[in-house]
Amino acid sequence: MRLDKFIASNGAFSRREASDAIRRGRVAVNGEPIRKPETPVDPDTDRISVDGEPFVFSRNVYYMLNKPSGYISSTEKGNTVISLLGEDGRRPGLFPCGRLDIDTEGLLLITDDGPLAHLLLSPRRHVEKEYFFICSPALTDGGIEMIGSGVDLGDFIAKPAKIASSRDRLSGTVTVTEGKFHQVKRMLSRAGSEVRYLKRIRFGPLTLDPDLAPGEFRPLTKDEISALMSAAEKEGKTL
Ligand code: URA
Question: How many whole angstroms separate alpha carbon 25 and alpha carbon 21?
Fold first, then answer.
């Protein structure tokens, strides 16, 4: 793995800050200052330090991925969200925290932290998931009211969702706290419209980074990881 990627891998430094720290001679590998960000290192065998302090590789990995359409939220072979991580990002045990449909884009947390994912996905945590949608035909007043007051989807009743629509009612945002299969598409369908495009723009305290193009990912920052940990602790509160 490249030295700059390694240094940026636990969220303490952005990739640019990592390169900068390396060029300034703040990073040593096996005791020798290394000034080339592209230097290959082996995190298992090389001793890496920053400003003389051993660099601690975070035990768990947390990535924000901007999922493109056409990829499945699975760890199996094929066009999976894990395949988007490439060689540098991939680690054993990584999985998507929750699922987005194959044609849904946007924020997907990828981690190897099973206990945290379990807490975040628990219905008791009420972690908010916010989506941008484009739909047709246009939503009606009745449809918007239905989504806002809870929709009976047959197998379960979706809780009241926050919905904001554009003036022409052909797009908007909807925020749900559950994560049932095709939930947003089914809610809009029951409300008399069809989702034509869906993108998750927020997952609890995490907002999709506008600098991530579809298919790109980055490690979460320390603040983002702490915010997720707090979200996981707060049972029963809407986050
Ligand atoms: N709701 C859906 O209908 N699809 C998704 O991918 C996520 C939420």
Answer: 7
